[in-house]
Design brief:
Blueprint (H helix, E strand, L loop, with lengths): L6 H23 L2 H6 L1 H9 L4 H11 L7 H28 L6 H6 L7 H8 L4 H18 L4 H17 L9 H9 L9 H20 L4 H25 L1 H5 L7 H24 L4 H12 L1 H14 L1 H4 L6 H48 L1
Helix pairs in contact: 1-3, 1-4, 1-14, 1-15, 1-16, 1-18, 4-11, 5-8, 5-16, 8-11, 9-11, 12-14, 16-18
Length: about 375
């Protein structure tokens, strides 16, 4: 049985879903000049640094689930990995081999040649946030199997942060195994979110979720405490970045300790702000229901928005548009994502209802035979 949802968590995750669509629309359709030399581009790219919110919330929410035993967590991890690699097929292979090839500029941005074995393998194995989530769940399964102590995931998370830059780019020089190394330590863009350091956000989220339960799910106390923690994280991280900016925050996707600590602090403060906002907008139930809908459907919305935006390159091009065009494309991509997700949920519900009816008929038939 799932436990009571935390309103601020739903709010933060729901807003993050919208931000993901906005950021990806800019990254795919905005020209380099639009992304780096316009007000809209700079604002949206800074929004993109909010990705860790998904990870922290994933860790906190994990503790709300009753499926905590080893096999259930591993099964969930495997499903997420399959979704991640399935998404790569839909994002890249379908356009490449069914739509006539990915845009040349897109393929060249990765230093590849279209419709070759190298490009096919590269795009299939591209490491993104779902690969990170799946691998981290396996780590969590192992941690929970041996200990339920809340400090263990926190300690492991901090160790990962401290070692991340030193381990960055580590390989052993054996084909195949090097890909596994990349999933953990990559310093290139074949893996956007390597386990070092990004899994630390999920693991610290696990710590926070366990702590929340120890506080008897007192939300006001919990969010006040994480606000204080957030400020401490920001101060410590800022000092480290000041000492060596390039080492700690030179590459957003492959951060050093200072960058990870600052981002963690910002995410904790955003959760505190989210709690305040949920109290303020509590009377606007329609608005909050909409945000909660986004939160509840985070995985399907994430997958769908990537497919729509990537396939949209055949209509709108890649790295071509100014900020006005991108601003117009953002609501288009958002609306399309919501429409496709609604259709997906409708089909899913119909399929579920059909299975239930069949099960009931079989049950009735067996009952009649017994009589």
């Amino acid at each position: 049985m799932e436990k009571k949802r935390i309103a601020a968590i739903d709010f933060a995750r729901g807003i993050s879903v919208l931000l993901v669509i906005i950021v990806h629309t800019m990254l795919i359709y905005g020209s380099i000049q639009t992304q780096t030399q316009t007000l809209l581009g700079e604002i949206i790219l800074w929004m993109g640094r909010g990705t860790p919110m998904f990870l922290v919330i994933m860790g906190i929410s994990f503790n709300q689930s009753s499926r905590q035993h080893f096999s259930a967590i591993c099964k969930r991890a495997l499903i997420i990995l399959l979704i991640g690699y399935g998404l790569n097929i839909l994002k890249f292979w379908v356009p490449e081999y069914i739509f006539g090839g990915l845009p040349q500029r897109f393929v060249e941005a990765y230093g590849l040649i279209s419709q070759t074995l190298d490009s096919a393998l590269f795009f299939l194995c591209l490491g993104d946030i779902l690969q990170l989530a799946g691998i981290t769940l396996f780590i969590i399964a192992c941690i929970n199997h041996f200990s339920q102590n809340k400090w263990i995931p926190l300690i492991i998370g901090l160790i990962i942060i401290s070692l991340s830059k030193e381990m960055s780019g580590y390989r052993i020089g054996i084909a195949g195994i090097d890909y596994l190394c990349d999933l953990f330590f990559s310093n290139k863009f074949n893996v956007y979110f390597p386990v070092f350091p990004w899994s630390s956000f999920i693991l610290i989220g696990i710590f926070l979720g366990k702590w929340y339960k120890e506080l008897k799910e007192n939300e006001n106390t919990f969010f006040k405490k994480i606000a204080i923690q957030g400020i401490v994280f920001i101060l410590v991280g800022a000092i480290l970045i000041k000492i060596n900016p390039e080492y700690h925050f030179g590459d957003y996707y492959h951060l050093g300790p200072g960058g990870s600590i600052v981002l963690m602090g910002v995410m904790l403060l955003f959760l505190w702000i989210s709690n305040i906002l949920t109290i303020l907008i509590g009377e606007y139930k329609t608005l909050f229901k909409g945000i909660t809908y986004l939160s509840k459907n985070v995985t399907s919305l994430y997958v769908i928005q990537w497919i729509i935006i990537n396939w949209g390159m055949y209509v709108f091009g890649f790295w071509e548009h100014n900020q006005i065009t991108v601003a117009l494309l953002i609501p288009v991509m958002t609306l399309l994502t919501l429409m496709v997700n609604a259709a997906f949920l409708n089909c899913k519900n119909k399929l579920t209802n059909t299975k239930l009816l069949r099960f009931q008929k079989i049950k009735q038939s067996k009952a009649q035979l017994i009589e």
